[in-house]
Amino acid sequence: MTGVLLINMGSPLTKKEMRQFLFKMFTDKAILPFPELPRILLAFMISTFRHSGSWKKYQQIGGSKLKDSMKQINNQLAAELGEGYMVTSAYSYSNPSIREGVETLRNKGVTDIKVITMYPYSAFSTTESVKTDLSKVQLKYPELKMTELGTYGENELFINYWVDNIQKAIDKYSYKNPTLIFSAHAILQYNVDEGDTYVDEIKASARLISEKLGVNYRVAFQSKIGKLKWVGPSTKECLIDLKAGQIDEIMLVPVSFVNENLETAYDQGVEIVPFGKDELGFKQICRVEIPASHPLLIATFKQLFTNA
Q1: Model-level pTM?
Q2: Is CATH 3.40.50.1400 what the domain over 2-151 is classified as, yes or no?
Q3: Model pLDDT for residues 196-236, shown as the tens digit of each residue
Q4: Largest Cα–Cα distance of the chain, in whole Å?
Q5: Which CATH class is domain 156-287?
Q6: Distance (Å, whole) CA 65 – CA 292
Q7: Among residues 174, 222, 10, 168, which one has the least CA distance to residue 97?
Q8: DSSP-derived 3-state class of residue 114
């Protein structure tokens, strides 16, 4: 029996979980690259003073859909892989934790575990964080064989997954010649300077998707916090630039995510799209919604096993 562990960042389901989620996230050195004591103090402050506001945002979008999406992906991948595989999900900052996910498989007698993250692109703050957590679990259970199946941002099936999602949105909104803004989660410029390849991977994926669709595109970044230097341009800056060029059909593509979350439904849907429409005056601007699951996404994950 081969175990399959799907890993995502996680999502809070209650206000109390919101505080715990933020604390766990910001004590992660991969998120805040500070010494331990100031990192813990800052995480405490952020989780104490920001969790109420963050929870209100979740309430505005009708709650988190991430874990429901993960359940669908989990079940569909299990059905696709068939007998001989046991699939379960775990989260970096929610329950069940990565350690608990591994233990679920181990308790079923699984000793060979394949790991797939919901991060299409490698980054210090995501895939490297997962590697750190897995290495800690490996020390506790040295008898387990754990293999990370890698990222997939330039995988042809994954490119086609986004092509299909975007084409459906083009048809839905009757766009004639849209400009795509691939709006990815921002990362610290410090990480890029230290060798993080995330931005280059995003740009490569965006180019491949746009070429298949035959449309113009830009790459931008969203959801930064604090006063440190983050990669740019920001998505709002990109919109301002496009408006100056008299472009009126805009589609935001949340290319760095495979599940709807606060940054897609709220940051894009509640903040960025209305900014483009109401403040900049775009005639047509929308975000491409992420389906809870998709056959091409499942096929992408299945192909990772073939290439392993």
Answers
A1: 0.95
A2: yes
A3: 999 999 999 999 999 999 999 999 999 887 778 999 999 99
A4: 61
A5: alpha beta
A6: 8
A7: 10
A8: strand
